[in-house]
Request: fold
Amino acid sequence: MGGRFKPLFRLGILMAMTFSVILSGCGGGKDNSADNAGSATGQTATDNGGSSSDGKVEPFNVSVFIGEAGQQPTPDNKIYKKIKEETGATFNFEFLAGDINQKLGVMIAGSDYPDLMTGNTKLTAAGAYIPLEDLIEKYAPNLKKHYEAYWNMMKDPNDGHIYILPNYGVFNGKLNSSWYAGPAFWVQKDVLAEAGYPKVRTLDEYFDLIAKYKAKHPTIDGSPTIGFEILNYDWRNWGLFNPPQHLIGHPNDGGVVVNNGAAEIFADKDYAKQYYQKLNQMNEQGLIDKETFVQNYDQYLAKLSSGTVLGMFDQHWNFQNAENSLITQKKFNRTYVGLPIVYDESTKDYYRDRAPLNLNNGFGISVNAKDPVKIIKLLDTLITEDWQKTFTWGIEGEDYIVNDQGRFMRTQEQRDKQSDGTWKLANKADALFGNLPKIEGSFSDGNSTDAAAQPEEYKAGLNDYDKKFLEAYGFNSYVDFFSEPPENPIYYPAWSIDLVEGSEAKVANTKLNDLSTKYLPKAILANPSDFDSVWNEYTSQIHKVDVKAYEDKINEQIKWRIDNWSK
Amino acid sequence: MAVTVTKKKAVRKPEKKRTLTWAVLKSQQQLIWMSVPLTLYIILFAYVPVWGWTMAFQNYKPARSFSQQDWVGFKQFKFLFTDDDFIRVLRNTIGMSFINLVLGFVTAIVLALLLNEIRKVVWKRTVQTISYLPHFLSWVIVTGIVATSLASDGIINDILMKLHLIKEPILWLSEGKYFWGIVGASHVWKEVGWNTIIYLAAMASIDPALYEAAEMDGASRYRKMLHVTLPGIKSTIVILLIMSIGHILDAGFEVQYLLGNGLVVDWAETIDIFVLKYGIAQGNYSLATAGGIFKTVVSVALLLVANWTAKRLGEERLL
Reply:
């Protein structure tokens, strides 16, 4: 008996070990993350117990997925602390690391959703959000009031439910704006200053200015001057694709131009050809950076930050980091002015628009949220003016001051802190607030919701170079370079139309983008005599794509929006 | 341990023919028990997922149950094979794979032969360590290094200019004709040291008596390399070759994705990128699955062909 027992015993031990190795290998990742979450919440829970004095608020946790890269706020962040004290809510953020589609694929495959998730059409299609309209009607009077005028627009075109609370585009009171975030032809301030502050309207004038400046200053701070940059990297493709629609006086509708409610692609049109031919000529003159189509986004920002790039077509927010770097280096004359360039003087520019409702962005509550009522009530509290002031301006006395006229202002010291990333992690709740429903425009006391847009605050914060620059033009801010935007068409903007995953329209759109990515650089870099043949090849390839499926889908949605969004 | 156990049993119960009887099973029960976890592992992670291939014949939508999916037959395969770009991405995949395969084998074997000839252990270890360190870098970093070195003011252009081989810097990454070469060279730089390890191990197992005998016959260093070392590692080479041929459709994804741009897209897009762009990025998981099936089928076919050829040539084989 003993003889038989021994080998069996050994075998048992061996198998147990094998299994435990396999199991621990499988389960390791999950255990860790659970531990982390556990320790984080444990820590915050004790914090909360210590600080809530009245004991009325009941602490609860909200897990949040933010669909973009970001940094965790510090554990003692003062705004989150205030939220915790007054509402009981503690946020556990998960920021995107890596590729969004990959991350979403994993989340969807496992139905592994946190309580709050930023909007994404893939998640909507997978049924990851709960409908919010009844919850809002019942529990969230403030949100209801906030979104009242936009109610129909927020409904999902496919099933008529509201899943996402748009984070931008709801305006109250007078809209002050001193910072233009959108697309434009940008030019270094020094180029304009040296030319005697001219008004630049047309594409030809724009490139003439750049050419002259480059001829006069072949190097800037020792590095060769770059005339014009075109960024086309991954999804940041508008630097190459979008200018033609603006040049004929249309707003940004993505890949189409809409005339009287009818959309058509413009990539193959003559006014597009005119632009790329111009770029081709400019390339021949050596104005366009040779490496422009090979560079990635980081290299692009690095070039802009060096102050050697005279101009580019881009959206302001896309290169804001580079500009901030220039400001830190005190190279104010190397920062940029956006110009609403058109083909000919008679065209009215339509770059600046009234910000449309930011559909499919902002938070939605997931199907896995245990207590959606609590969350919607929390969001309802946070949309009130006091909280909104806390998010934008900060805490009175610490982050801003109120002057005798009741206007909010900042001291220079407070202003400087606002551009300090480390300080912000401890004192601002940007990760949350960026995606929350928010009041834009002005508060009921007349103060601007955005410190940078408060006129006196903007002026006070300007450096001497910009003060002089704006005086020369007689403008209050750089936004004045653009025409006042007209009322948006109801369907605007066409770029926010969801083409529906996997549909023929979406495939056609991907193909069109592929073709443009492939042929436009070729056409621009071609010998001027070859330009036409490359262009013809490009357009003939476009005509092979099922453009109609793409245009039809957009037109269908434009019609749908006109039918459903009209008040 | 497994070996000693079987030996013991074999002695106790001599068998003429290996027939599977209850007695055999019983006598080898320890071995069988030991193989259970791994078999389970393979069934769970290699065979059960094959069920997912059904997705390729559906218009798969996440969060729907199996019975609610639309069945579309071969629609996804049709899209894949009739797309104009497919031939192009297939050509790129095979082209780059082939270059990687040839360059990878030749450089690794040559480096291993050279290292094997070095008699000073310290020097040998140093070279080996330096050459395999890049293996541990991720492709994101390697492509960053490659892009920087190939930039107009990068080190490659600098050197070529200093040597007066070129007059103007070449924009390496904007010319399709250089792309395959760049990918091949980056692979060599990253993997050559790592790939030598297995050959060096194979060389270490060659009987020193063979070298001594060759020396007695007056063989020079080159002769010994050619007639002792190379034949000694031939079986290793063949096995590795068969295994690599099975992966010929895995030309890689990161390198091409990260180094590619609009100007070289005709030469840079591989099957994996195509599937990502039109499958996963579009939420069309069915198309992605169809692409995966295609790759698997081709790989298995190639593997079998290579294996059969090796058998015919009287070489070591895998199956």
Summary: The interface with chain B takes residues 7, 11, 14-15, 18-19, 22, 101-102, 105, 108-109, 111, 122, 125-128, 232-233, 290-291, 293-294, 296, 299, 501-502, 506-507, 510, 514, 517-518, 520-522, 525, 544 of chain A (CB under 8 Å).
